[in-house]
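Q: My labmate handed me this sequence with no annotations at all. I'd like to see what the chain might look like in three dimensions before we decide whether it's worth expressing. Could you predict it?
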Amino acid sequence: MEIHDTVLIAAAFCMFNRYVDGLGTWAPQDRTFYINRAKTRAEEGYANYNPYN
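A: Here is what I predict for the chain of 53 residues:
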């Protein structure tokens, strides 16, 4: 029972940390960014994706 509670608490902290990390992400507000990137993503996929390009 004590191990189970510890695992649940650890899982809750992990979910909270992922949520907080997600709040700090950047997403373009301009729709044309996504429209222009769609063709590239379809051709190249995400295997060779570099977010710094």
